[in-house]
Prior knowledge:
Elements: E1 4-8, H1 11-18, E2 22-28, E3 31-38, E4 41-45, H2 50-64, E5 68-77, E6 87-88, E7 92-95, E8 101-104, E9 110-113, H3 120-130, E10 134-136, H4 139-149, E11 152-161, H5 182-190, H6 196-223, E12 230-234, E13 239-243
Parallel strand pairs: 1-4, 1-5, 5-11, 7-9, 9-10
Antiparallel strand pairs: 2-3, 3-4, 5-10, 6-11, 7-8, 8-12, 12-13
Amino acid sequence: MNTIAIIAALERELHPLVKGWKSSALTHKDHTYHVYEYDNVIAVSGGIGPRPAAAATQAIIAKYRPQMLLSVGLAGALIRSLKVANVITPNVIVDAATGSEYRCESGGGVLVSAGEIAGSKSKQQLVERFHALAVDMEAAGVAAVAAQEQIGFRCVKAISDEADFPMPPLNRFVDAEGNLQTGKFAAWASLRPAVWPRMIALGRNSNRAAQALCAWLKQHLATGLQPSRVVRVSETAGVVTTKTF
Length: 245
């Protein structure tokens, strides 16, 4: 039976899926991850950003050697037609920092992985540069490891904030390991009543998106997900490397 590894940024993105699953701790290179297992599926939250996502993926590969890596989580819409809780399965992942693309045979549309949480202004810039449907921070990190290790890859994201949503300044509260420092953010927000409506809306929308994401995963994991071929395109070097699984 093929092993599928699900990599998300935050545990709350996975909670509706992994409730009741077996859980254990996995330590890799001085970092401990909380891993969930059920049948042939493994799930882990690696933290916010491409580097934490890549590190968590490498830890999972070292222990479990999965046949498919599934990058999942919440994403911000870059186009107005995408609404909260819409689920997308992009087949092109672009690393905004390098311009590299990771292309899959399954799904459709472009997702760009940025280096920080995107607000409405930076979303417009990403649309102009990459013509993407949505933005996240982790998929390119997982896809890069998949290409390097010759493991199948797919991506599933649910929209938590629409294109014109006024995102609170969350970036300053993400630490070097990709953890959202919720206590510090709550203390900051408690002194700024003007941001409370946005925080309430973001929390509600994120919960809706996580529910939609996990419902999609439950359905498709039950019916079978097949590994997808990964093609990496380097914009800088103009070199295309194809990995077949």
